[in-house]
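Structure tokens please, single chain.
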Amino acid sequence: MCIICVELEKSLITPFEAEKNLKEMQNSLDLEHFLEVEEKIEQIDRENHFISLLNNDNTEEMCTTCYCDPCDCLWGTDE
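Here you go.
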């Protein structure tokens, strides 16, 4: 395993930092491992995004009359 993989597995670097490090090391890695690390970065980024969506407590429901968020019932629609 390369240092980027190790640090990603231990959550010592963010996907953004890993991508930056990967660009710096791209000439010293073979293509197969480069693509593997790239996929690992994308997977962790997707997982982090999903977790942030789950932790978001600012959920609001759409208006059942105009189906807008925020509600356009008082202001009228732009149709």
